[in-house]
Design goal:
Elements lengths: L1 H9 L1 H19 L6 H10 L1 H15 L7 H17 L5 H24 L5 H20 L24 H7 L1 E2 L2 E2 H19 L1 H11 L1 H6 L4 H27 L11 H10 L11 H22 L7 H18 L3 H10 L1
Antiparallel strand pairs: 1-2
Helix pairs in contact: 2-14, 4-9, 4-10, 4-12, 4-13, 4-14, 5-6, 5-7, 5-12, 6-7, 6-12, 8-12, 9-10, 13-14, 15-16
């Protein structure tokens, strides 16, 4: 039994697949409504921002860094789009482009302090979360619409009642599949290619294992590390754009509270916080596990939505402890010593 557990936990993605299947079996048995494809897709759409950002935060954490400022960039992106479109009269796509560029600049600024100035990633991104949230609030003050209301009324439907243009990103569908899920799948494939099929991905792993050795091998580690924070910020901008298009409201605090969910998805996916190990597949599976858990508990077991962080936290702790016990971690060695 011990050897079986060791093999399962060694191949972490396999364990996550088993865990995900068990969720479907348990929730499906408790309430058949859970298995409705449309409801499952809607639950993923509601959690898509966390899913998208966690893909690129995985790249950051593989290098040994961390990024907790992404949710504030979601709000900053959203309000920039709203103010430029509503109050400045810009074309909606031009507004989106400017918002994405602004987010990239934010990521580059934080990445510069981390990579070139040697400041701890936690400190920089924590400061960035406050800074960019403050900027979002400042930008919202430029709008004639009160900040608490949010800017709405984005171009929506055509004469046939179909979502078009900007709103198509958030509410449309492609052959019956929500547009946001299609975009998410495309980003999964892109990130898997970047991380596992390119020299850039190899550099990220080498930096995470030993940055000094990577530097000696000719890798520009500073520029590479900085680039991961830019990519993470751009992913947050994309998530902010999709979220704004989905809820038809641009707010400065859109995405607030996503930080722990993003980090949980990456860590649960098997990425080490010390760097050098991680996979996109693991992050995707972990994101779906959390998403399904948050969808299934209220529907099947009447768990209050305000209390969903508790079971998610418990699952994370138990799974990580199980991985340590079954693998070659500290806990397993400790138990072995006690047994002796």
């Amino acid at each position: 039994m011990k050897n079986l557990l060791k093999k399962v936990f060694k191949h972490w993605e396999l364990f996550l697949v088993i865990f995900l299947i068990l969720e479907f079996v348990i929730f499906g048995a408790a309430n058949p409504k859970f298995l409705r494809p449309k409801s499952i897709m809607n639950s993923i759409v509601n959690y898509i921002s966390v899913c998208i950002i966690s893909l690129f935060v995985t790249l950051v954490m593989i290098t040994g860094g961390i990024d907790i400022q992404a949710p504030s960039i979601i709000g900053l992106t959203s309000i920039i789009i709203g103010v430029l479109w509503s109050d400045a009269g810009m074309n909606i796509w031009v507004s989106v482009a400017i918002a994405v560029i602004a987010a990239a600049v934010c990521g580059a600024l934080s990445g510069f302090f981390i990579a070139y100035c040697g400041v701890q990633p936690m400190v920089v991104t924590l400061g960035g979360s406050f800074l960019y949230s403050g900027l979002a609030l400042l930008v919202s003050g430029l709008s004639a619409t009160p900040a608490y209301k949010g800017i709405s009324g984005f171009p929506a439907k055509n004469e046939a009642g179909q979502f078009v243009g900007f709103r198509f990103l958030g509410k449309g569908d492609i052959f019956g599949v929500p547009t946001q899920i299609v975009i998410y799948i495309a980003l999964i494939l892109l990130c898997m290619w970047i991380l596992h099929k390119t020299k850039y991905g190899e550099k990220l792993y080498l930096i995470g294992v030993n940055q000094q050795a990577a530097e000696y091998s000719g890798i520009n580690t500073r520029a590479t590390i900085m680039s991961t924070y830019v990519l993470s910020a751009v992913s947050a901008a994309l998530a902010g754009t999709l979220l704004t298009a989905n809820v038809n409201s641009a707010k400065y605090n859109l995405g607030a509270g996503y930080t722990l969910a993003i980090i949980t998805a990456v860590v649960l996916g098997g990425t080490l916080n010390t760097g050098g190990k991680g996979s996109i597949l693991g992050t995707v599976l972990a994101s779906l596990i959390i998403c399904i858990l948050r969808y299934g508990l209220p529907l099947c077991f009447d768990v209050d939505t305000q209390n969903l962080d508790l079971p998610v936290g418990i699952v994370l702790v138990l799974v990580v402890l199980g991985r340590e016990i079954a693998g070659q971690g500290i806990l397993r060695k400790w138990f072995k010593k006690k047994k002796v």
